[in-house]
Amino acid sequence: MDFIASHENWKNCFSEVAPGLLLFARQWVQSAADAEDIVQEAFVKFWRRNHSIDNRALLYSAVRSIALDFIRRDKRRARREATVFAETEPSIEPQFEVEDDTQSALAAAVDSLPHDQREVLVLKIWNDLTFSEIAGALRISQNTAASRYRYALSNLKKSLQPQ
Amino acid sequence: MNDFSELENELKKLRPAQPSPVLFERLQQALEDCGAGALAETTAVRSPYNWWWLGFGLATAGIVVLFAVISFEREHRLDTATVAQSSPASEMRPEATGTEQSPVSDRFVPAGGTNVVYHARDEGLHFADGSDRPVRRVRYHTQQTWRWRNPETGASLRVSYPSEEIVLIPVSGQ
């Protein structure tokens, strides 16, 4: 069994999963730096416990758990920042590397999805998790994961249709 | 294929933002920092096995000692019973003096005793040393028999031996 916790392969493993992990973490935090902090903490935790890379659901579950803790810890800071940023133009760091207007519209549509649908979509499309793994990571049933995914695609299709 | 396959393909073409190179450096540093911790954790993971083996060894040793003690005690009891049955004199000695039972055979309780005088001989009047009054000396030959019984096993022990007793009876002049 390939374990992620080895000095030889951790960079390769992380290179493969890092963009998807960061995108998943960005569901809870707007700052890319905060998302990287969350991913780093989760990956180190995952690595130290010698979990198998095959158990990807555990890694994403760790990211989610740490992100929720991060939100709770920084709620006061977030309130202060919200007060300050309310008077200025918000500059949200892009979650995707868009190449044209079509992709930009698609990224905006993804960003406008309800949170529960968006996180399932992110895990399915950009992290290649199965519905079983998504269910494990989010602690929901497979049917719920699948239905949220269908709702997300349906909503995206509606929002992308020309008016 | 489902109705969303085209949309899914479009979504997959959308590439997430790449992590900053700094993240790799920070991660490498964090992993190196926790390397010693991870090693300690590995040791800590192994230590329960050691404790298991230590506990198992101690338990085994305890059981062996327990069996040894039980076996020794059983052998000791057998030896004691053998001694009690093969050397009645040691059992008899305290009973002959009329005191308590021998500590070696505490499980044998007295079951009775007889003292049969089978011969008595009057040896006449004598004057004891330093005395001006005569005494009659009577010599008795007796056969004394003592019995013990073990209430647990039902075993009995009987000791019989001859004895001689001289009795001096003062004689009063009339």
Task: Tell me the total number of β-strands of chain B.
Answer: 4
User: What structural class do you assign from the helix and strand content of chain A?
Assistant: mainly alpha
Helix content of chain A: 55-70%
Major β-sheet annotation of chain A = none
Number of helices of chain A: 8
Mean pLDDT across all residues of chain B, rounded?
A: 75
* Count of extended strands of chain A: 1
Uncertain spans of chain B: 39-47, 87-101
Strand content of chain A: under 5%
Number of domains of chain A: 2
The structural class of chain B is alpha+beta
Distance between the termini of chain A: 52 Å
Helical percentage of chain B: 40-55%
Describe the main β-sheet of chain B briefly.
3 strands, antiparallel
Q: What's the pLDDT, averaged over the residues of chain A?
A: 83
How many helices of chain B? The count is 3
SSE run of chain A: HHHHEHHHH
Major sheet strand order of chain B:
2-3-4
How many structural domains can be distinguished in the coordinates of chain B? 2
Structure overview:
The complex is a heterodimer of chains A (163) and B (174). Chain A has 163 residues and is mostly helical. Chain A folds into two domains: 1-77, no CATH class; 100-163, Arc Repressor Mutant, subunit A, CATH 1.10.10. Helix content of chain A is 69%, strand content 1%. By secondary structure, chain B is α+β, with helices and mostly antiparallel strands. Chain B has three helices and four strands. Chain B has helices at residues 5-13, 21-86, 88-96, and strands at 15-16, 109-127, 134-149, 156-170. A three-stranded antiparallel beta sheet of chain B has the order 2-3-4. In chain B, strand 2 (109-127) and strand 3 (134-149) form a beta hairpin. The termini of chain B are far apart. At the A-B interface, helix 1, helix 2, strand 1, helix 5 and helix 6 of A face helix 1, strand 1 and helix 2 of B.
